Amino acid sequence: MSHEPLMLEGKPVVAEIYANLSSRIEALTAQGITPCLATILVGDDPASATYVRMKGNACKKLGMESRRIHLPADTTTKQLIDTIAKLNQDTAVHGILLQHPVPAQIDERAAFDAIDSAKDVDGVTSLGFGRMSYNVPAYASCTPEAILSVLDHYQIDIEGKHAVVIGRSAILGKPVSFLLLNRNATVTICHSKTKDLAEHVGHADIVVAAVGRPKFVQGSWLKPGAVVLDAGYNEGNIGDADFESCLDKVKAITPVPGGIGPVTIAKLLQHTVEAAEASV
Amino acid sequence: MSHEPLMLEGKPVVAEIYANLSSRIEALTAQGITPCLATILVGDDPASATYVRMKGNACKKLGMESRRIHLPADTTTKQLIDTIAKLNQDTAVHGILLQHPVPAQIDERAAFDAIDSAKDVDGVTSLGFGRMSYNVPAYASCTPEAILSVLDHYQIDIEGKHAVVIGRSAILGKPVSFLLLNRNATVTICHSKTKDLAEHVGHADIVVAAVGRPKFVQGSWLKPGAVVLDAGYNEGNIGDADFESCLDKVKAITPVPGGIGPVTIAKLLQHTVEAAEASV
């Protein structure tokens, strides 16, 4: 490219979201309501523990409450669902986050779907996904929504563009595909069984890397002037895109770290504030 | 093409489904349970009245019950939802079909979502869509599932193929995209805002025409050897594909009428039998 690619930094997007939330949190607090996010961590995965801590700290910074629930690694599906049921009933809790992934003995989908849709601020329930897909009000999954917020903040057009999403997970690839579709992108969903992945990616105006493989997406695959949104979070803070090789081809790209990740947390807090407002 | 394209007739697919259902309906009847589909028609649209009648007749032919509810054209959303709530409670009713489209004053999505997921045999609720998308057991929308049944019956591979879906409606384009995705196709979803539609279609191994415009998909757009599934049902029994021009290019194509349509009804009855079995 003859010009420097645009860095899609998350920081100004987060600042914009938090500026909007501050006054809303104040207004709620004046009514005696402090927005409260309950986080559930099952087991002792250090990365998961870090993510949960980051979310709790973000709440604190904004004057919100967080309630951390830590369950042992041998928790059963039933015990986890019972814990969720209590939080569903608790009127002081506005949002519930179950940190993904949970230990293998737990039916994660059943646990996610036990979360009351009014408190599903992380956007993980089947019902929430269906509603979001059908344009019924619902909390969308946070990382997909963060991707859209980054595109919007940097005024990157979505309508009529060809978006190629690499990955089809329940909380990332699938929902981001439908968020982009509902914003009038033409969307191609690729995954591990896709043949000629590089060719598919080569047609894209917008590439969403959501595959969970470090430095997977190569610059050589890209159409010149493509926009790359990297939602990867691999060990060592490495994204799903091979950043260096992509730089030569892209119009804009998210850095990792500092791109989508921080916006994801801001979306979680935004949803929790919205849930608190809806509870009034 | 040097050979005649394969005609993907619905008739043998329906025969296969009905052969399987007959013994199951007999077994239920022996237990004193007759599978019962309640159909709701709002207003006097002649095409809708025909569709509802066809579904009732299909039930009768298989020894199932149908209960036809006909509401006036000026029915409100609340009245319709009240009617659905009564059917949700009625243990003699196993499946509920709300004929689409409803008059403009009704919130169709709210009405669909009022159907108990256990009786959502037409696969129209947000919850059912979310569950289907996430591979949680649910009744998929009938026309999308009919498309998959036709592909399976004629042993047309889905895994690793590139499927292009034209249309993104709640009960057709969106669900068929996810059914194909969950069967490991690479899926592109096109719609009214798609640029270069012909080019997208030209990459497809499998084309699903779900756009509601007669003779819209042109043979000249197709890759030689493509498979065309035409889910169109336009006035005068005309499909969404320009059948004549497609014939020169395709490996296989559904006729209209006689392709997807009859299989859709068979899927509805299959779901109703499953719902009756689940109620035992």
UniProtKB/TrEMBL annotation, chains A, B:
Domain Tetrahydrofolate dehydrogenase/cyclohydrolase catalytic: 8-122
Residue intervals of the Tetrahydrofolate dehydrogenase/cyclohydrolase NAD(P)-binding domain: 141-278
GO molecular-function term, one example from the UniProt record: methenyltetrahydrofolate cyclohydrolase activity
Keywords: Amino-acid biosynthesis, Histidine biosynthesis, Hydrolase, Methionine biosynthesis, Multifunctional enzyme, NADP, One-carbon metabolism, Oxidoreductase, Purine biosynthesis
Transmembrane parts of this sequence: none
Pathway noted in the entry: One-carbon metabolism; tetrahydrofolate interconversion
GO cellular component entries: cytosol
Binding site for NADP(+): G167, R168, S169
GO annotation terms (biological process): L-histidine biosynthetic process; methionine biosynthetic process; purine nucleotide biosynthetic process; tetrahydrofolate interconversion
InterPro entries the record matches: Aminoacid_DH-like_N_sf, NAD(P)-bd_dom_sf, THF_DH/CycHdrlase, THF_DH/CycHdrlase_cat_dom, THF_DH/CycHdrlase_NAD-bd_dom
Catalytic reactions of this protein: (6R)-5,10-methylene-5,6,7,8-tetrahydrofolate + NADP(+) = (6R)-5,10-methenyltetrahydrofolate + NADPH; (6R)-5,10-methenyltetrahydrofolate + H2O = (6R)-10-formyltetrahydrofolate + H(+)
One Pfam family named in its UniProt record: THF_DHG_CYH
EC number, as in UniProt: 1.5.1.5, 3.5.4.9
Function according to Swiss-Prot or TrEMBL: Catalyzes the oxidation of 5,10-methylenetetrahydrofolate to 5,10-methenyltetrahydrofolate and then the hydrolysis of 5,10-methenyltetrahydrofolate to 10-formyltetrahydrofolate.
Similarity-based family: Belongs to the tetrahydrofolate dehydrogenase/cyclohydrolase family.
Subunit-level organization: Homodimer.
Official protein name in the record: Bifunctional protein FolD
Source species of the chain: Alicyclobacillus ferrooxydans
